[in-house]
Amino acid sequence: MKKIPVILDGDPGHDDAIAWVLANSRPELDILAITTIGGNQTLAKTTYNAGRIMSLIGLDVPYAAGRSKPLFCDLIVAPSVHGVTGLDGPELPEPERVIVEEEAVELIARLLETSNEPVVLVPTGPLTNIASLLLLRHDLKEKIKHIYMMGGGITKGNWTAAAEFNILVDPEAADIVFRSGLPITMAGLDVTEEALVYPEDIERIKSVGNDVARVVAGWLEFFYQFHQPLGYRGAPVHDAVAIAAIVRPDILMTREMYVEIELCGDFTRGATVGDYYGLLGQKPNATCIMDIDRVAFIELLIDSVASYGKGELR
Ligand code: RIB
Ligand code: CA
Fold this sequence. Notes:
The structure is a single chain. The protein is an alpha/beta fold. 36% of the residues lie in helices and 18% in strands. It is built from twelve helices and twelve strands. Helix 2 links the parallel strand 2 (29-36) and strand 3 (63-65). The longest helix has 17 residues, at 211-227. It is globular, with a radius of gyration of 18 Å. Calcium ion binds next to helix 1.
């Protein structure tokens, strides 16, 4: 099987962590590196969490810390959702690797330069690292095959009425990415809030019985604690949908759309404004995922955690 080279960029974060568990279990993906960004928590915390996740799942690749704050505005963090550590809940192993000396953009640039084929980027946090790469190394655009990102929402926001968290944290970065002309698949709230893991699904994951399954179930239980009082039927595993878009596009429903990022609105800054009916006559710049076969998504997650050995917690 020809593997797809991917770089995972995120702000772990419970759903970033589950996305990385899923990606690492898929034989069709070749994870070249992990890069981190400030978002769910500070850069130091998301980077520490990245090292712990990599130890847990046995992912032995270079990882680098990225930008500590957005391009122009102050960082927003989300302790109410992900806790003080950014990954509260189950005990995790310590990082087995130290981060590389390069900053994330430098690491990504080096890997794009040396790869003998274009690479897929999977940002699941604010887009500051990806935008910075495009600004600093415009020459490497041709080595980026596709961007599968979690962020935005055509019909809703989750941090303000209009804006989803990842885009709101750095709207200017999102604007640079969406104007880049690169192929983008956007897993926005339209689909990710349908990608719900119900309590009964969490029990099924827990019953798989290995260490990774136990930790993933713990992450889901913690994540659900925040969402249940808001009326969610389950935990929305936002970021894992970006990985599902690569490995199981058949379980997703998509719509090509021209998407603009609102930068100036008093009430709408950070909104992903999608031209659903093509009224502007602009060429679509994103494949927007609008729905998911939730049952198939749950089976995908269960198959993923079941693929990890029973060994000791790494
Ligand atoms: O709005 C959900 C997104 O914000 C997810 O990527 C979550 O991890 C946070 O980064
Ligand atoms: Ca995230």
